[in-house]
Amino acid sequence: MGFTPKAIFLDMDGTILNHLNKVTMATKDIIDNLRSKGFYVFVATGRSYDEIAGVVPEGFKVDGFVTSNGMAGYIEGDVVFEHSLSIELVEKIIERARESKVYYELFPYGAPRVTLKQDQAYVENEIREPKPEGVGINEWLSRKQAIKEEISWEETIEGNRFSKFYFFSRTKEHINNWKNELEQLKHEIDFTTSISSGHNVEVMVANVNKATGIKQILDQFNLTSAEAMAIGDSHNDLPMLDFVQFSVAMKNAGEQIKEVVDEVTEFTCDEDGVYHYLKSKFNL
After folding, report:
1. Least enclosed by CB within 10 Å: which of 93, 201, 217, 219?
2. pLDDT band at residue 2, thresholds of 50, 70 and 90?
């Protein structure tokens, strides 16, 4: 490797999560092993904090979490930092999403994700079978589960603390048109967008991403980016991979990601790629 990190940041979807949206016991065990030897291990994910418990094995522990693409950070369950979308932005984006019939999930802090009831019909229609050919099975399963169990269909938006928007479309043309619309909206209200597949886009507070979140977590441990490494697989990982001293892409990552990192894992997320990589690199 050429250098030994003190802190290791791991993406979830497509990295420690396989395409069935599960973290294996092998991955849990290698993280436990690293932490027992004095390494700090963190998760840096686009998922909200409330989503994590359902996809990790019992007893899964890390030293902290960067969630919602840098919008919030947690150590031992306590909030270290938290950014929130404004209610003005939330209402404006929902109005535009409705006009474009774009599937959306709004993630309030500490509450189930929300979609308004008046949008339920077209949102559910986006998740009709069969699965579109280009959509990853992990993203499709997540959307099916969201529709069935996780979305709270509400008459109005309540509260004032929101971690992110998630948008999805069956077709790349539809989501790309929506991305263009969001870019135009940035001229009215500043915010950041991030993508993790060709069929989605997420909205966060302006100038927030995984790298800004990682810096805030590192500060809590008196560490710097020069002492950190990260493993990821998709576009929303690019700020993180650029920020740390040593970056690793999954074998299943896109070529754009592989081109900018220091190393690529030998195995994919479905082959316990993170487990094998860390076991080999740290001689565990």
Report:
1. 219
2. confident
